[in-house]
Specification:
The complex is a heterodimer of chains A (212) and B (222). Chain A contains 9 helices and no strands. Chain A has one domain. Chain A starts with a helix and ends with a helix. Chain A is mostly helical and 212 residues long. Chain B is globular and about 70 Å long. Chain B is mainly alpha-helical and 222 residues long. Chain B has one domain. The chains are: A mainly alpha (212), B mainly alpha (222). The interface between A and B is medium-sized, with 33 and 32 residues.
Chain lengths: 212, 222
């Protein structure tokens, strides 16, 4: 099988698993709605919509984190990861497929979260939607690699947020900047640079994270 | 080797302190308090050098797969975190004296060091929650490489964030340094780099002895 075929097969496996088990996606959807509800009470009356825009990014960040913390759990528990590593496919294909499945879940959840946000708080601008799309790519590519690191450790889910937050900080800056400033173009550019740089590093280094 | 390094760094440090105390002129605006600049900035640059050195050793490890690179990378990052914590401390003291607050978000360098401090603290969490072996070395090396990519990207992000959080009001240490100030600064930087290098040598020697001792113990115990 070629590279694209490997990725497609692995992606299909993840999506099929989710369709049957229905574990991650409903959890993420309920979480993001619960988070937005909590945020209403975290914003005293008189807070500007800008504060709500900032909180939207926190909601997205933590929802992504929730999904990613489950990303490799099934593989690790059943010993699938060892099988995948030994199979004659490029290891980076495992990363790419897992990133794509995480991205699919995140985009689906945001299809609920963004309309909900615009109903609860303030309308979502087109720039924000573009920023969310770009940020999703960065969150999922970096997050998938870090999730693979975290499942290799004893502390597992505990470790992922610690690994993830400092690396996700530039994404939050880019996203909030695009949402709240009048001229969001440069922030979109920044998110794009982040995505490209980290996608290349993750693609190149994933092999070392799963194989000795 | 390492004792010669130690003497060199001791001599440089003594020279640096003497220059800061007696040679460098007092800053016209900030007065005596500006002198912390000669410690704060070289410590920060030394921390960057340690992180960079750690990442370089990490790259060498992934490339050559020789175990000693892993230990060297770890020791360098360990030192980087210590110097990073000292940067935060000296920066905080300087902020208190200059601006009357212990912490300011408008100093990009200080915020960057906070992010890096958090990032590299997690390096230890990661390292100590994985069994000793090639897997741990791999994960540590990849994480160390992420660090050197994160430094410029975070710096850019923090600069960008100033546009919507608040404009930069303060600039730490203006670029206009007189010749004697610059000379003092260079000696201080050399002193801290030498100090880091001798710490690096000592800790590495200690860690290697430790490993050797453990090997011998295992041989002796039935």
């Amino acid at each position: 099988m070629n590279y694209a075929g490997d990725v497609a097969a692995l992606l299909r496996k993840d999506l099929l698993l989710e369709l049957r088990a229905k574990e991650t996606l409903p959890a993420m959807a309920i979480f993001v709605l619960a988070a937005l509800t909590v945020f209403h009470f975290a914003l005293p009356s008189g807070s500007s919509d800008l504060a709500a825009d900032g909180l939207l990014w926190i909601a997205i960040l933590f929802t992504a984190l929730l999904g990613l913390s489950r990303a490799f759990v099934a593989e690790r528990e059943q010993g699938v990861l060892d099988g995948l590593v030994m199979s004659p496919c490029d290891r980076s294909a495992i990363w790419l497929a897992k990133s794509l499945s995480a991205l699919t879940f995140l985009v689906l959840v945001e299809a609920i979260a963004l309309p909900a946000f615009s109903v609860f708080f303030a309308p979502v601008s087109l720039t924000t939607v573009a920023a969310v799309a770009l940020a999703d790519v960065g969150l999922c590519t970096v997050g998938t690699l870090l999730a693979a690191m975290a499942v290799a450790s004893r502390t597992r889910e505990l470790l992922l947020p610690l690994l993830f937050l400092p690396l996700a900080l530039p994404i939050v800056v880019g996203g909030v900047g695009a949402s709240v400033t009048a001229n969001g173009g440069r922030y979109l550019g920044f998110l794009l640079v982040y995505d490209l740089v980290f996608a290349i590093i993750c693609w190149a280094s994933f092999e070392y994270v799963v194989a000795e | 080797m390492s004792s010669r390094n130690s003497w060199l760094s001791l001599a440089l440090m003594a020279a640096a302190i003497a220059l800061v105390a007696f040679y460098a002129p007092e800053d016209a605006n900030q007065g005596l308090s500006q002198k912390i600049f000669y410690f704060h900035v070289p410590i920060a640059l030394t921390a960057y050098a340690c992180f960079g050195w750690g990442a370089w050793k990490a790259l060498r490890y992934l490339w050559r797969r020789e175990e000693h690179y892993d230990l060297e990378s770890y020791v360098a990052i360990h030192l980087g975190v210590i110097f990073g914590a000292m940067t935060l401390l000296t920066g905080s003291i300087w902020a208190k004296i200059s601006w009357g607050v212990w912490w300011t978000w408008s100093s990009n360098q200080l915020v960057l060091f906070l992010v890096l401090f958090l990032f590299y603290s997690t390096y230890f969490m990661l390292r100590f929650s994985v069994e000793d072996g090639p897997m741990r070395a791999n994960l540590s090396a990849v994480y160390a490489l992420f660090g050197v990519v994160l430094i410029p990207i975070s710096f850019l992000a923090i600069r960008l964030a100033n546009d919507f959080i608040h404009p930069t009001v303060f600039t730490s240490a203006g670029p206009q340094m007189s010749g004697s100030m610059f000379a003092t600064f260079c000696v201080c930087l050399a002193a801290f780099l030498a100090l880091a290098a001798s710490f690096y040598g000592i800790e590495l020697a200690g860690k290697r002895l430790d490993a050797k001792l453990r090997e011998l113990r295992e041989l002796l115990s039935p």
